Amino acid sequence: MQLINRLKGKRRSVDDLIFDTINVIFMILLVIVMLYPLLNTVAISLNASTDTVKGGIRLIPRVFTWYNYEHVFTEATIMRSAVTSVLRTVIGTGLGVMASAMVAYTISRPHFFLKKFVTIAFVLTMYMNAGLIPTYLLHRDLNLIGSFWVYILPTLIGVFNIIVIRSFIEGLPETLFESARMDGAGEFTQFFKIALPLSLPVIATVSLFVAVGQWNQWFDVFIYNSSIPELSTLQYELMKVLSNSNAAFGSGAGAASQFANAQGGVVDVVTPQSVRAAMTVVVSVPIIMVYPFLQKYFVKGLTIGGVKG
């Protein structure tokens, strides 16, 4: 009997070793697949444009240069637009997450008699949209066009974010709220003292969603504030830089090569491909810097918040 148990134990050990080996190999391949596009983009952004059009750039630049980044950051409005983007991201994320959390807490309360009606009304907005022209007219009538708040107020409430936070709060022990009510705590006290601190994982998850959305947004700048340089954002200015590069050098490799030859073989020129790579790195760095600090909350909040629907 002991011999049989030993053989079973060895068999389990061999099976575990095979599984762990396959799992490690699979994860390494997955990491390579995930990292290669990013590293390739960084390599292209650091490579001379006239050399990039030849192709063959993988993970290491062949002809190293900072000129692609210099071209992006020498635009006069870039730094001012970066400040606007940062303010938009910080203010929009803070107000948006807080507003969504308060609505989510309200519709998560079992004693709220309009709970079902309000939930359905919010969900319907995910399937029906008035369109761009009515939205523009509404923003105009609210005097939002030409102001910084057109970036914040229209997207203050996110229905998906509300559903995720509500699901998380509904999973909290109801006895905590009952005890607080017995002690005389009101709804605001219960929200700020109980629901909000315990919902930190899902709040961090939603904050990341909202921050990425605010940071990457440029279309609303184009629609509402394109004629006001003081309210331009980094993404919109980088989009204009890319458009100017396309117009100046064309979208093909031949146009960039001809331009280089016309200038006597000068390396310090830009192509749409190189500018696009540099722009991608520039707009990705802030999110990459923030994500590691929110990763543990992101995974936990997304998992727990998505269990219930």
TrEMBL record:
Keywords: Cell membrane, Membrane, Transmembrane, Transmembrane helix, Transport. It is found in: Cell membrane. The keyword Transmembrane applies. Signal peptide: none annotated. SUPFAM superfamilies: MetI-like (SSF161098). CDD domains: TM_PBP2. One of its GO terms (cellular component) is plasma membrane. It is a multi-pass membrane protein. Pfam families: BPD_transp_1. Belongs to the binding-protein-dependent transport system permease family. This is Sugar ABC transporter permease. The lineage of its organism: Bacteria, Bacillati, Bacillota, Bacilli, Bacillales.
